[in-house]
Amino acid sequence: MELLMAIVIGILFMAAVYLILSRSLLKIILGTGLLSHGAHLLILTMGGLGGTSPPVLADGVTDYADPLPQALILTAIVISFGVTAFILVLAYRTYAEHKTDDMNLMRGDDEHD
Amino acid sequence: MTSMINLLLFPIILPFFFAIVLLFFKENIRVQRSLTVIGLLAALTSSLFLISKVKADGVQAITLGSWPAPFGISMVSDMFSALLVTTTIIITLFVVVYSFSSIGKERERFFYYPAILFMITGVNGAFTTGDIFNMFVFFEVLLIASYLLIVLGGEKRQLRESIKYILVNVISSALFVITVAYLYSVIGTLNMADISVKIAEIGQPGIITVIAVLFLIVFGVKGSLFPLYFWLPGSYAAPPIPVLALFGALLTKVGVYAIIRTYTLFFVHDIGFTHELLLVLSILTIIAGCIGALAYFDLKQIIIYNIVIAIGVILFGVSQMNESGLSGAIFYLVHDMLIKGALFLLIGIIIYVTGTSNLRKMGGLMKTHAPLGWVYLIAAFGLAGIPPLSGFVGKMLIVKGAFEAGNVVGSIIILASSLVVLLSVMRIFIYAFWGKPVELPKTDRRPYRSMMIPSVVLVVLSVLYGVGTEWLIPYMSDATDVLLQPSIYIDAVLKE
């Protein structure tokens, strides 16, 4: 199971890197989304996949799943959700101002905006 | 739990509380300004109390949510973090007062002050937290507030640079999560004191060194370490000067703090590779910064590249891992926060007066704005570390530590970089204040005066920081002790 997850995470990272290296702003944003999905899955896997065992630690219970990774992922998901929403709005405003979503055309320097 | 132990939460919660209240008074600039100052003064008071408490009783720790220490989220305040928290609040206070006359009513009406307070919440939280995942959360708090600050105003250039700034930070945040996940899979804990104990138990095998390098990449992006500083000059130049001052004085320093914390608390058992890497990267950072600082004729770029140089100097001190090197790094870190804040405020005034940030279009300001010239000169000497000003002691200790550790070449590069720093800031002085006066755009004299007050006081503070070194030494040595002996930190957190 861990191996399968590792492959899935690897594919997610691969796709994310490919998208982030493209020129189109929208593709880059999709790439960051995939990147954070990969990172979240990684936390889940790194905590050890406990199968169907319950996340409790009490006297007499020996077979339990680690509840911490879920809590971490929940936090990370909320943050990446907020940031993605913000960046989408920003991308739209940038597109409206610059009339392009091509990162190559968004260079500019101090003299020329 | 007595109520006194909660003291270390006040510098985090007070700005947060005031920020929330301010969200309800969007249009009322007078309320925005006064509540921000009141909130920061309250936070400053609590952080000064915190310093005296840490000085008297040692490291303060609290574990939240009534879970015992390795399981709940710990907040830890040692002298190092308490000093940084206090410096952060002081700088923010001056920048806020400076903003009154420079940021413009448009931005003041659009959540400018709440964003600053939220950012301070994140910065102080990152300095105080004792839990590595919680540090990620506080990083996000300060980053999201900084996203708002960098884009606020919505100028064409700001939008363009914000996109780059946010993308770099989103990717480095994802790397942060990935690194924490790896660390968790090896160590099985997130509490920083507990991580230190567990790494000591397994004796830092190779996988921990890999994680150490990953942390260096993550925090290196935030702290602008070579070769990860590429995003900084463009992004920092986009927002208005008060925002630039906050970013330059505080945000990169959070990354530096995180490197110092992890490299003195976690990865101390096999420093052959990790700290050597830090040493090499910090020297390259200094060289890259020096090239940038001399290459530009733009005021903002020159000082921004000086941030990069300072990051290199501080981390060079840390990589020595001896008493002189580390205490020099702490001295220099606080100095650099104060002096960079002051310098950005001062060049903001120069830009306001001349209407340009291009050195070639300036000249002869000494005839019309002599006080500005003299104050700038003092700040410039302070940055270069001319004794008895504030940069001197830190740099001297760092070089001393490097000689003790046998890094002669590195020490020489540090000393040579001081000359480059001096040259780069003197170029501003010579181009802007000497020479033939150029015709200045008509500007109001009142904002000039009210911008001068916080800038001058901040410069005076930095001078006092240099002159009062003798008085600060007990505090600095407390801060250094915790970095040199992780057991002090660990005992304070896990003993409760």
From TrEMBL, chain A:
Topology in the lipid bilayer: Multi-pass membrane protein
Keywords linked to the UniProt accession: Cell membrane, Membrane, Transmembrane, Transmembrane helix
Pfam families: Oxidored_q2
Bilayer-spanning residue ranges: 6-21, 28-51, 71-92
One GO location term (cellular component): plasma membrane
Tree of life domain: Bacteria
Name of the molecule in the record: Multicomponent Na+:H+ antiporter subunit C
Family (UniProt): Belongs to the CPA3 antiporters (TC 2.A.63) subunit C family.
Compartment(s) where it occurs, according to its Swiss-Prot or TrEMBL record: Cell membrane
Keyword Transmembrane helix: yes
Gene3D superfamilies recorded: 1.10.287.3510
Lineage: Bacteria, Bacillati, Bacillota, Bacilli, Bacillales
Species this protein is from: Sporosarcina limicola
Main location: membrane
